[in-house]
Amino acid sequence: MFSLKKAKLHAVSVHQSRFSSLFRAIEVTGTQPQASLQHGLAGEKVLSDARNHSLLSKLCTSTRFDIWSMNRTEAFSTMSGSILLQARDPAKLNEEIQIAVDQRRCDEAWRLFEQHMQMEGFPRKSVVNNVLVCFAESLDSNWLQKAYTLVEQAFEESKQNLLEKEPLVYLSLALAKSGMPVPASTILRKLVETEEYPHVSAWSSVLAHMSLTGSGSYLSAELVLEIGYLFQNNRVDPRKKSNALLLAMKPNTQALNIALAGCLLFGTTRKAEELLDMIPKIGVKADANLLVIMAHIYERNGRREELRKLQRHIDEACNLNDSQFWQFYNCLLMCHLKFGDLEAASKMVLEMLRRGKVARNSLGAAILGLDTAELKLRKVSGEGLEVKEHDSQVLSIHTMIPYEEFLRDRKFLNLEAEAKDVLGALLAKLHVQVELITSERGVLQPTEEIYVKLAKAFLESGKMKELAEFMLKAEHEDSPVSSDNSMLVNVTNACISLGMLDQAHDLLDEMRMAGVRTGSSVYSSLLKAYCKTNRTREVTALLRDAQKAGIQFDSSCYEALIQSQVIQNDTHGALSVFKEMKEAKIPRGGNQQFEKLLKGCEGNAEAGLMSKLLREIREGQSNLDAGVHDWNNVIHFFSKKGLMHDAEKALKRMRSLGHSPNAQTFHSMVTGYAAIGSKYTEVTELWGEMKSIAAATSSMRFDQELLDAVLYTFVRGGFFSRANEAVEMMEKEKMFVDKYKYRMLFLKYHKTAYKGKAPKVQSESQLRKRESGLAFKKWLGLT
């Protein structure tokens, strides 16, 4: 009896030793790798060792009776009792996880969840979804990351049936609000792929919060394009009841406005134009906000003809507020300046001034006052720009609607209102960018900025006569000012301070011939500038002009003349000037008005139009050659129509005329080739030309949209060496790359490429091609 008991104790000792070794192995293999949130569903699997499970099961079966019959439960529990308890009773562990979730104890819920994953895999479906909701409600980046990792793992293990649509949409919204647009967009994409279509009001709310960041705005545009593609050209039959959920996902006007506004604010306007091209294909109706956003996009991309077509809709629209009118006409005016059409721009300004003059009379003021009151009433009722809603948007971005309320709102009205708030904040930022036009009594009026830009453009093109005519007409229509403070005098003074003396003299001649009297200060300033540069002939001509205009110079001008004569060793001339000054009885210490004005401008003091013009000419960038805009529009038209042979001819002609292609030119060409397909060699040639121009001049600058278009074409065609070059350039410039899109593109067209061992016999070019393909595949995370 004693020996039998001793043998059983020995058996327990052996089994305990085996269990201890086994649990150490499980601890080693059960660690959870952290998946990168910013690169799609590419995390490592968190799986327990199947062989350890099998061994554990066998050991439990063979020893259970011996251990329990020896009454050694306490000793056994010290080592591994909790794990054995969970292994034989997963239902209790599910209950504990649910309790932790209900009490919002995320740490405890995650600890228990990890234990369940190590032994049994995923818990029950309801528990998994409740954990996702709990982590999403916390809005904590750490728990959001863990929740997204669980989603990644479920899809990788083909267990997406455990995930319900509503918790995933809720998690996507939380990720977007927390500044994680990549995982937020990936969840939406996965829902669409698995045909669990989210409602447009739900995913547009996610889109709104994504659009507050640069990468998020780009992804928002991509999502709308991908979802919109499903509905192009009436592909979905609305008469079929089975299509009801799919049709509920169709992009609406608000979703498009959000994506387009984000693109505008972060400068991806060519991507925005792709969205505009899609609008008629999916049958979305434009509202007032969409019309104004379209105007901004056309202005940025230099589509003046499109703006002119849009003007008819703007003028006929009855629901536009005054701010939206400002924005449209500001865009039209900017586009005229971009194309160097100074005649059209000056006509617009003069027309505004004429209407303002009419509005200043009593009858016009009364009528327009009623209109203005109506506009204000519409704004109060919420029809205008949603600037007043910005505070609520700031509040909503940092809070999550409770999940129970989220589920009750079957039509997603709360999320729709939240998205509208964010859209209002985005549109308010666009409104701030309006600088050329303002409003008085409901009538559009030009600001000083437009006079500055027009004056600069006239000066750069050497059109002094046209500049003088415009300024004089503008002063005639506007409120009268003193002769020494007129716009033309300010422009003349600016020219003098910048050393543009000939242009200043030309403007004085134009004013004199038009019968406009000017003060002595501008003549004095120009005379002193001529004296400093020893331009004797011009001094003589200016003195003659001043005499005709009845201008009397002060003592400082005579002193400058005397000093100039002395420098040239003309003693007789200096004495003659001094004698003339004595006879005229001119007191010393003359007018120093211009010197004070110039010092004020240099010290950043407020000096009105002159100060702004000085800053614009000294610091402002020169306008792009108007010819480049013209040829870009021609090439864009041919590329959009798929007429690439004509586009190539236009590009060749553009080069021959001395216009250097820029990023917009090449973007049109690349997207045109990509649309018709199989033109990868042509894109490769363009790629080489782009790099050559970029290395030689500053006119060609690679941007995200151009490199993304190039990368897409190379990946589609399997040109991975060139694709790696584009990726390297984008990462060097810290540009966002949508890896999910390229992963799906690679799997669609090159799924079986570069699998297995390399061929034993292959040429050097084949070897390089394989290495490039493997490098790109590794970058995507597919190896």
From TrEMBL:
Pfam families xrefs: PPR, PPR_2, PPR_3, TPR_At1g68980
Matches recorded under PROSITE patterns: PPR (PS51375)
Domain At1g68980-like TPR repeats span(s) in chain numbering: 86-212
Domain of life, source organism: Eukaryota
Similarity comment: Belongs to the PPR family. P subfamily.
NCBIfam families: PPR
Protein name in the entry: BnaC05g01730D protein
Record organism: Brassica napus
